[in-house]
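Hey team,

Filing this mostly as a record. A colleague (T.K.) asked me to run one chain through the structure pipeline before their review meeting, and I want the input and output archived in the tracker in case anyone asks later how it was produced. No errors, nothing strange. Just documentation.

Input sequence:
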Amino acid sequence: QVQLVESGGGLVQAGGSLRLSCAASGRIISKNNMGWYRQAPGKQRELVAQITSDSSTNYADSVKGRFTISRDGAKNTVSLQMNSLKPEDTAVYYCRYHYTAGRLYLYWGQGTQVTVSS
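Output structure:
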């Protein structure tokens, strides 16, 4: 089992910044992927950004150039620096951890609310 604890959400004005963090604990596998997804009311959960254990990254087009994902392998944490926030970034943000060992092992955090006011 892997436990994910997120922090850093909140309310910010458009154009502002927030930093989300997620700490993983439990059965941590060295080769894994961590990422951030978000879900706005009435919409499906969508990928925001992900990072592999060798620090390869992938971003949704809507956040490229504004958001930066990073990880600290020694501390098993992943962070999402969000700059130039827009009202459409308002959503619950979820941390995700997954790895493959014969099958897919997938874990989610509890979610943290990000609200961007116009």
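Quick notes for T.K.: The mean pLDDT is 95. The chain is about 0% helix and 60% strand.
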